[in-house]
Amino acid sequence: MRRPVRFIFALHNHQPIGNFENVFEQTYQESYLPFLDVFEQYPQVRLALHTSGSLMEWMDQKHPEYVDRLAELVAKNQVEIIGGPFYEPILAMLPSRDRMGQIRKYTRWLQNRLGCKVRGLWVPERVWEQSFVRDLADAGMEYTILDDCHFKDASLEESQLTRHYITEDDGRTMSVFPGSEKLRYLIPFRDVNEMIRHFEQISEQCENAVLTHGDDGEKFGSWPGTACHVYGEGWLHQFFQALTDNADWLITTTPSQVMDTFKPLGKIYLPDGSYREMTEWVLPPERQNELEAIRHAPHDSETLLRMKKFLRGGFWRNFKVRYPESNEMYSRMMQTSHRIQQFIDQGLREPEMEAAHDFLYRGQCNCSYWHGAFGGIYLPHLRNAVYQQMIQADNVLDRLRNSTEPVLEADIRDYNFDGQKEVRLANNAVIAWLAPKSGGTLYELDVRKICHNLGASLTRRQEAYHRKVLAGHQAGNGDCASIHDRVVFKQEGLDRHVRYDQYPRKSLVDLFYGCDVTFEEVRNGTATLYSTFHESEYETSIRRIDASVEVKMSAENTVFGVPVSLEKTLILTENSPELAIVYRLSGLPRDYRFHFAVEMNFAGLPGGAEDRYYSDWAGNRFGHFGTPLDLKQSDGFRMVDEWLGLKLELETSRFTDFYAFPVETVSQSEGGFELVQQSVAVQPHWMVVPDENGHWEVKILMNFDTSLAEARLTDRTDGTDTAEHPVPAPKFQDVFLRST
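^ thats the sequence. predicted structure below, dont judge the formating
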């Protein structure tokens, strides 16, 4: 007779803030709903289920019958609900107050809606740091599930991963369960009998063994190729039937039941880390490729085989280094969190404070802060959603602070935690962040009335998987294989689009070209630059003039070896939706001609949509935002996004030529490699001819006309239909097809 083996089958279902409504619905129909339909037919099988708060709120709004069914399964003790931070943030990103606040908020929601007792939490992306324990325990959590690699990195062997352990920090304790990587790759991709044989081996080797599977629910129907395999070919029925047929020795259980039945195997302190793949994705591309080569090297010696188990990847927080855009979102989030706490410290407890907290928590959703086999930071709609939530929180706080006086602010501090000072410039219409020490660039530009950051761009950089794109070999297409094993191209010719930028794709990037530069060279990123102003440190001063504030940045550098002084001044006025930028060049030799360009990148304006287009002042269209534009001798044009309700007007005091073109990346997602438009780059450019004193000057006006969005909002308030063009700030505007 086989010795009993207990099996914790834990699933994690998640869709983030920022994904598309149709993806929510598609994933529900492909994965969450059919899984529940099959599961309910096997009442002897028990399940531990975590559903992120962003997904659970959507389900409760769109499919409350599904949530009601979950509540019935909870009442029957067939399902244990696992809690966690409400909107699935990486816990390492959050200050303790938000970490505990998110967990407590979701625990209350789950208890009220499902009638369950929440004893454990799902740690998002299994990103673990030992210091979490005190916050998790103080928030009422008794256990969590982590990957077995966390335990192996603490020097445990495979044979020691057959139950839970106790861990501690600052005198608080909780239980940690090792999730099996082997089971993650067996379920649901391999034959059910192979999985049963694995459990039989454990039965022979161990007494009172507990094995834990903790992985994505989306791989049951939504991951490529799984719908046919799991449901069409009946894998899930076979799986649950096998568990039922072997229930005399293979006992499905839950973490709470195990804790109530068995003592921990011992005490453990786990190193900071995540699941194996995540720790590899955070490494620089060359290190990723090197580590992959080592892992797949032939086992030609006992020593090499033994050494491989000591290989470790990187530290999750370094995603904020690898992708400066992640750090920009993180520091923006931290600024919002700090501002909310200041209001609380001043004694404010109004209902609006709860709304500000909700916006903050939603903006902490993890998926856009990193990148691996899933889209993450490369998905513009996820980045846009983070900023949308933060801008809404700022708007709430400004109303609380003073509902009558106009906002006009400019201050300097280290906003992005890089040891340098940044400038924040704000009024009621616009918030702008400048980085004087990094080329004097404009790296965030918030249009407050539509809650949109036009500066949420992304720089094209090398990725380890680009070598697969350049090789052009597909593998696993059409098969039911783990996402980690697939190489699929969603478009042809992607290898021709793999490009890397010479400078960050921000705004107010100061560039000097040769006189014979071509539009194609600029578009392709191969144009030679004849100065390093875009990397210079700019000296900065701020002054208030009546109802305006101006930020002046200046630097000296060489162009074609000639010393040149460059000064740019930004001017913002109370209640004005206009940002003025004045450029002054001085020290120019009279016999020199300079080809000078100012690059601006505008994010969240996708190409290919006919209601998002360029036009002249008379309204004549030049094409959608995916169209390359080489506009000759003009004093400006409009960029119109009817869906956002934005007309962005760019006007120059000197007639000039304009380059405009899409900036596209080749990135990896769960569906394969794809081309994604990250921003629209706009470059007014001049052949500079200095005056008799060696000076040259131009003024650029950016006007952010949101009247269309405001009109729709007014119509909505009046009760008229605005479904065709909603103001882009609903709670569940978007969501994306993955989890990990």
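The first helix runs from residue 21 to 39.
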